[in-house]
Amino acid sequence: MSTADVLSSGPSGDERLAPRSGLRRLLGRPELGSVVGALAVFVFFSLVADSFLRASSMGTVLYASSTIGIMAVPVALLMIGGEFDLSAGVMVTSSALISSMLSFQMTANTWVGVGVSLLVTLALGAFNGIMLVRTKLPSFIITLGTFLMLTGLNLGLTKLISGTVATKSISDMEGFPTCRDLFASHWTVGSVDLQVTILWWLGLVAVATWVLLRTRVGNWIFAAGGNADAARAVGVPVARTKVGLYMAVAFAAWISGQHLLFSFDVVQSGEGVGNEFLYIIAAVIGGCLMTGGYGSAIGSAVGAFIFGMASKGIVYAQWNPDWFQFFLGAMLLLAALLNAWVRRRAEANA
To answer: Who has greater pLDDT, 168 or 331?
Structure first.
């Protein structure tokens, strides 16, 4: 779906709801290419790794997918809105550090640290968005600056307060068990160990898909990403939409940060650097265009699932993990080419 499509949809109806054939709707889905890619990766590792098809292996694959997928969902929405966030990976660590250090230093219930961390992390997202719309600078520059500042703050403040590069353990503090139940619990179904992050991931995908396809905000996101000037001309609140998208990324970073903290009790200040590229890769593999205005939340989930299968499939196949980055890069290139081909076919049939 393009900005022109959104803006040309008159008040009498949403273009997305116009009757179309089943084949045409299928070809028009942004995630079509990634679904084909996911099937190919699944078949490939099923053939080369005997343990890949075990039920217990699928639990591990889903967990790896969910840790990327939680962040890939809002990152995909932000890319559809025409922007990037290079601070997303470091923001996850910042959120965990705030919760941990605040709870430990104040000797407070861990829920206090978790609540303050939510407010501070949302403020970081709002900062990115407000700086973007006020300065008109590219999001690459704005969020790169935030990335560098947060990286320095994470290391500097952690060493200043804790004396080391890691936080103190908070596992014996009040509120820790209930926080861990919400952010880092797991349960066993048969021989499959399932982490609570999978529920967070699927919930975010469902909410984001509903927002994109069934609400006016979804139209605003597509319009802001495709042609911001044209969108403003017809009354779309582009600035508020983009600030909101950055805050959505911050909210997901808060969830991921709390999972990181309550899984391991302590947090290393240098974690998270480079993960922002994994979130962007999952969104691109899932069909989001780098130029904005096109993509889906479901596609980002499929992209994260491909990432999970690849990262764990290489282990199950007993390959040298040094080749993982090459495999990931090749997968990204093939996915981008496949998505471009699918989109051209869809536009030709429209």
So the answer is: 168
The phi-psi region of residue 168 (left if phi > 0; otherwise alpha if psi is between -120 and 50; otherwise beta) is beta
Exposed e or buried b per residue across 58-69, where buried means at least 16 C-beta atoms within 10 angstroms of its C-beta: bbbbbbbbbbbb
What are the CA-CA distances from residue 28 to residues 2, 72, 340 (Å)?
A: 11, 21, 12
323 DSSP assignment: G
Higher pLDDT, 217 or 17: 217
- Cβ neighbors of 116 (< 8 A, separation 6 or more) are 98, 99, 102
Structure tokens at 216: 């006016």
Residue 133 corresponds to which amino acid? V
The DSSP code for 350 is -
Q: Give the pLDDT confidence score for residue 94 in this predicted structure.
A: 96
Residues 6+ apart with CB under 8 A from 163: none
Q: Token pair for residue 349?
A: 């049939």
Chain mean pLDDT for the chain: 87
Mention every residue, 6+ apart, whose C-beta is less than 8 A from residue 125.
91, 246, 247, 248, 249, 250, 251, 253
Chain Cα centroid distance, residue 316: 25
User: Which residue type, as a one-letter code, is found at position 249?
Assistant: V
Give the model's pLDDT for residue 40: 84
Q: How far is Cα 315 from Cα 312, in angstroms, rounded to an integer?
A: 5
Residue 343's pLDDT is: 65
pLDDT of 269 reads 87
Structure tokens at 161: 């307060």
- Give the Cα separation of 119 and 248 in Å (integer): 12
| Coil, helix or strand at residue 268 | strand
CA distance from start to end of the chain: 11
DSSP assignment, residue 19? -
